[in-house]
Amino acid sequence: MSRLIVVSNRVQPPSEEGGSNQGGLAVALSAGLRESAGIWFGWSGDETSEFTGSINFAKAQGVTTATIDLEPQDIEEYYNGYANRTLWPLFHYRVDLAEFERGFAGGYERVNARFADTLLPLITAEDLIWINDYHLIPLGRELRARGCANRIGFFLHIPWPPTQLLLSLPSHRELVETLFAYDVVGFQTEAWRDSFVEYCTTQLGAQLGEDDVLRHGEHAIRAIVCPIGIDTTEFVAASTSEPALKMHEAMTVSAAGRAMIVGVDRLDYSKGLPERFLGYERFLSARPDLHEKVFLLQIAPPSRADVQSYQEIRAGLEASSGHINGAFASAEWVPIRYVNKGYPRGVLAGIYRAAKVGLVTPLRDGMNLVAKEYIAAQDPEDPGVLILSEFAGAAAQLQEALLINPYSAEDISDALGEALAMPKTERVRRWTALMQNVRDEDVMWWLRNFVTALEGAKETV
Length: 461
Ligand code: ADQ
Hints:
Elements: E1 4-10, H1 24-36, E2 39-47, E3 56-60, E4 63-70, H2 72-91, H3 102-119, E5 128-132, H4 139-145, E6 151-155, H5 163-166, H6 172-178, E7 184-187, H7 190-203, E8 207-208, E9 213-216, E10 219-225, H8 232-239, H9 242-255, E11 259-264, H10 273-286, E12 294-299, H11 308-328, E13 336-339, H12 345-354, E14 357-360, H13 369-376, E15 385-389, E16 402-404, H14 409-421, H15 424-440, H16 443-455, H17 457-460
Parallel strand pairs: 1-2, 1-5, 2-4, 5-6, 6-7, 7-10, 11-12, 11-14, 12-13, 14-15, 15-16
Antiparallel strand pairs: 3-4, 8-9, 9-10
Helix pairs in contact: 2-3, 3-4, 8-12, 9-12, 10-11, 10-14
Adenosine-5'-diphosphate-glucose binds near residues 22 and 157.
């Protein structure tokens, strides 16, 4: 395998005990980089008063990292602005939350150019360059403009929005055209890829040929479907590790014979948390016979706290969980345990394993790794049941989950009743099929698929 240079907005190599609050992207990329002996380049997460382009090299857990600091204005316009207030909501179908400011777009261009200036000297002729996610869409074009002739791939971790929504982005055409600087562009599902192809054919006049090759003017790219997985072997081991066993035991004692339903999500409006609480409330109203027999543990570490819509969702969830507990709790029973902190991976695996039901109900999600982690952590002899939103990318692979519409409180309520009553033989049957997929299509499979497509790109395009 050629040396890989992976680029993403944030670089967060795992800590010894497996990082307590890492996004799915961080978890997946570190696992992949270990195999390829490559470099992971991106923002350190730190601020500097003036951008210098100086690179900080480090090695952690077998992963070499190269990071840069950004100026406060960069962080405000590029990260909090264009990435998290414009593209993230729009690409998750929330045009109502998207903010369109020229200053944000300018900062986004500037930071992508700074990434290119700093990264270019690290690149040698045979390197494969793999750029990740919506923060860095124009980076390939910036590298090409500086003479980089390497194979460059781009992978989008989030959904690609429907054309009619994307048209609301000022300069949508310019942004999408920058993707034609890549050799390969990867998506989590066929649905997101098809949506991209539809935009390119209807708005740019691009032509789709064989082997997913999309031609536009002088350029040809391969638009591939390449769903991300988890480090399944590591996660299965984590689920029977010492911290997991301890946590499992602690949860079993504290559950006092009640069935635990678990939700684990970054606190983000795309994850459908208010709707999930409403669905659970509906379930409590519909099933008085199960009061005191179940509880929902919702773990939601805050993210992007500088963005107002994230402050609002946090306040809304505090009110909603308080309201539900106020309406249904008794002296001995609290129906929702709502926790705003991160856990080390072993501990998290122990929590998943102790839960009879995994409740994963995003309104829109590129993939959703929590669904896969929940499956990997189960006891094969007595697995829990996964309830999964049909709008998560993971639903395309995890068809044996109980698939629901996350906007429907009734769907959530019915699925909870079905999951809690499901006989063991049926739970084992579904879990076996789900686990097969989580094992076969893991993070190494994802990495190899993408890299193979990138290596072969020049021959097919
Ligand atoms: P995210 O939106 O961050 O990722 P997800 O795929 O669910 O979403 O990954 C979240 C990760 O954070 C999981 O590995 C989970 O274990 C971890 N996590 C969440 N809460 C935690 C807690 N309290 N303690 C410890 N760990 C916690 C983006 C896209 C997804 C896509 C991934 C990868 O939005 O759709 O699946 O990238 O491509």
